[in-house]
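Morning F.,

Quick status update on the modeling queue. The single chain you submitted on Monday has been processed. Sequence for confirmation:
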Amino acid sequence: MSQNTFTMSRRSFIAGALATGAALAMAKPSIDASVAFANDAAVDGGTLNYYLTDPVSIDPYNVQENQGMQVCNALFDALTTYDGQQGKLIGKAASSWEANEDATEFTFHLREGATFHNGEPVTAQSFVYAWNRLCSPLTDPENPSVVSYHLSMVEGYDDVVAGVKGATLNMEAKDDYTLVVHLSFSYADFPYVVSHLATAPVPESAASDMATYQWAPVGNGAFKMDGKWESGQYIKIVRNDAYWGDKAHIDGVDFKILLDIDTAYLEFEAGNLDNTQIPNGRISAVAAQYGVAPDGYTANPGEETLLGPEDSIYYLTCNNQDKIFSNAHMRKAVSYAIDRQAICDTIFEGTRVPADNFITPGIAGYEAGAWEAAKYDVAAAKEEIELAKKDLGVDSFSIILNCNSGSGHEDIMQLIMANLKEIGVEAKMEAVEWASYLQKLQDGDYQIGRLGWIADYPIMDNYLYPMFYTGNGDNRSQYSNPAVDEALSAARAIVDDAERIAALQKVNRMIAEDFPVIPLMFYRHTIVCSNRVNNLYVGSLQMIDFTKCWLSA
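Structure tokens below.
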């Protein structure tokens, strides 16, 4: 197993990644002189039309995927946020924070004068209420939060999620603007955790009608709801003029909910969308037509195509409780059989990179080749498939590949099916819409499917703990290894950054031996914006700060 540690700065990684796709950086079209474009003269007004698929949730209580997170990010301020342009964690609802020496107690100082969209003040008690709401099974007994594990290190968490009568998280409002949180073990990365929008505050009035609140959340962010979420149609938000921070230049965002990327791109070409994903097979043509953003992340007129690397991975999730995919040899056989480079070249025109790891290269602690079976090796695949047959007492395999429909995943599955046929595995594909697909994974009603993981915050722990710790909501593979759980818990408690990263690297290699999921590709942006969009920054975590962009007249 290779342990060649990859050490490259984020700046170097981005530059190298863009060089890989240099063929896409064709001559940029000239900017139409009629388009108002000035770096130092932002224009106020206008509504941004943004493509979205139907989210799972836009309430912090269950926000769990990038579609819902994008809306939630506009509606809510968590305590902190990761600023990709500055490359550091900054305060949002909190102006500052500090920890005790062993990182078991954190004190957050809130911004004074901040309010919810209904005018209620945002206080330390708002966080006490919101975090207990997130973790309590009584909040919505039929639909418990799948993201409450983000607060698993807070004292009292286990009792609260278990529904123990009278249990609460060990946190206190010292006064209206001082929040103290007690952890059950040392966790120096806690300020990153509270950048997750699941930890955002909600007003106590949210308790009065959960069914209503989840369709029209009242937040504390720079934008507020304009009406309610109309599933399958739209979500509209408008500027919050009572916001504590910089007011947005745009009047609002119209999130247009469409079924698939191809439909969205047609709407984009018709002038009805300002932002969309690029359909498979059209990346080079779009880059040539609309120009490429030099930094990979910031859209401006004439530089409208975004191809920057993301802190995210495309992978196959294997149901480790399924009779066939409970076998590690079977999982490794499928992995070795997949020609990742062919997928990256054929479908994504070289803009994605084969994944050799579950940790992405932009994260401190990434080690090249740490997941040894994450590579194309037909001979090794055939050896593993024979071992799987012996273990399971079968002569052949017929499996079902699951994916969500309408986002180009079917094309990837077709190539994988052809790869599997080469090692004697017959595979069929089943595709359903996104929300139904997630439910199938959550219910364990699948054998092998596809998912993408976008870092909630850019640290190793956010890849390993949510995905591989026993029982976590995002652990859709249903993987469980007590030794991994113990080692992961121990690593998380190390206060020294370098020592903690080294310990997490060992955990990552332990998980790679079991190989519960199959890494396929490291994502890059494939986004295009209209030529009226200025200073729209889509970071490596895929989040957009809509306050900073503006629209040409």
